[in-house]
Amino acid sequence: MEEYTYGPVELLLISFDGDRPGPALRQALLDLIEERTITLLDLIFVNRTADGEVLIVEMEDLPEKAQLPDLDLGELGLAGIDDVEELATQLEPGTSAAVLVVELTWARHFASVLAASGGAVLHQERIPAAAVNAVLEAAR
Question: What global pTM score does this model have?
Fold first, then answer.
């Protein structure tokens, strides 16, 4: 059985206050990486100015003082500029976000075994944490 080099990959658009994520968010991301739950493959910052202009800043274009040396990106360029520009249409003027491409490292071996056994994922859907928690809280 051939082991996959990568497991399933997700593209996320996350918003946050300010123009960069705060230290708590960065630490939560580092924790997921350290636990080998995810592998961060690409990271791009997006700002929509008050007048609606979209500004895209890739990791390698960050000023040196804003670099995130503790984030080791695996495959820069996976999030194409066209994809990022399309995602940026969801941002309200005057807001910021990050586009993350993450490998679900925890699923890599499972994906290899599934493929070797002739299986395939037929449907996948992510239910946001806020929705799950709201439904469960309402059911109580």
Answer: 0.82
